Automatic annotation (TrEMBL):
This is Sugar isomerase. Residues 100-285 form the Xylose isomerase-like TIM barrel domain. The lineage of its organism: Bacteria, Pseudomonadati, Bacteroidota, Sphingobacteriia, Sphingobacteriales. It comes from Hufsiella arboris. GO terms for molecular function: isomerase activity; metal ion binding. InterPro entries: L-rhamnose_isomerase, Xyl_isomerase-like_sf, Xyl_isomerase-like_TIM-brl.
Amino acid sequence: MRLEKYRIDQHNSELDDKHQKRISFFLEENTSAKNIIQKLVDFQIAIPSWALGTGGTRFGRFSGGGEPRNLEDKLMDIGLLHQLNGSSGAVSLHIPWDIPSDAEKIKNLAGSLNLKFDAMNSNTFQDQAAQEFSYKFGSLQHVDENVRRQAIEHNIEVIKHGEALGSKSLTVWLADGSCFPGQLNFREAFQRTLDSLREIYAALPTDWKIFVEYKAYEPNFYSTTVGDWGQSLLYATKLGEKAFTLVDLGHHLPNANIEQIVSLLLMEGKLGGFHFNDSKYGDDDLTAGSLKPYQLFLIFNELVEGMDARGMNHATDLGWMIDASHNVKDPLEDLLQSVEAIMMAYAQSLLVDRTALKAAQQVHDVALCQEILQHAHRTDVRPLVAEARLRAGAALDPIALFRTLDVRKKLIDERGLKTVATGL
Ligand code: PSV
Ligand code: MN
Ligand code: MN
């Protein structure tokens, strides 16, 4: 389904009085904020195709109904999100879950919804029905050359699908690793993985990037062959200039200082992209900003500082994506909440007084350094983010409009109650 433009306009005009008061007050209080609205408008966060259905746990899955039945439905859902918030203008596909039967048609559909194709994701962590060799003991790291070959060829096929759609990057997340000490020779596993990645790298079109995503543990619980940012950076450095590290917020050991990791990867020119989510324990894949909004802000603070230092374009020079999906909320409402949290953290980090922070750092005024950061984080930037939505032609209050228009009910009417999208 699509939202008729007049519905959004009507919603906005109902809220306009209140919004105008809030935004004028905000701009009076924060005089530098005027210049950052366009940055917020430009900033787009890709939606992963696997987040549109109710996620499962390994114990069960509870579909909420009206979920996408195929790739077209997934694009339609993201199109809806983008109409509502103006910041979800990209999709990240997972192959083989999202193999387009007709790439041209899918490309046109995405174009008509104003969506771009962000990174393509390969899948060598599950066995598919028609597949010859099993990934039970790894894929790109596997001791058997046949398995490695199959996994390499799969990645090359993913690149081809991406090329047909206009994507420009491939994200490789590997489940490879070991569950028990002694199971694996770490050095040889690394070397085999590197050799496999080199073959995939060689198949990249000239204007493509490859992102090497790391994860501390799960599904392997003793070692992971791309287990942390150090290992990812090693691969990315050895591969070459088109290879970068991808940071997924849920893929660290507890209490890792992710903002410092981000800062150093940026310094090395090796940060490629981001997967946003939030967690209390591990790779919980909860709504971005739902548990640790200050951490999210501190990460953005480093991103903005580091990107500005390197003269990078915030909107286009890194891949921004949500990677979250879970069991209990309407997936579309959940994604609207994630995008809002990310936009708020981004807006707050744009408000940091960097000159004052630098000066305070130089004289070791630690309390003032903290004040400066917390002042930005404690600023209620909701009017600013709403203003960016308004300027993008989206809704002042996306979730309220989603509910007023009974979007989920309409999707259930259209698609049925028992729908399950291909995916996790
Ligand atoms: C598994 O942890 C995972 O969530 C990774 O974060 C990948 O990005 C995603 O699945 C899709 O492959
Ligand atoms: Mn991820
Ligand atoms: Mn994950």
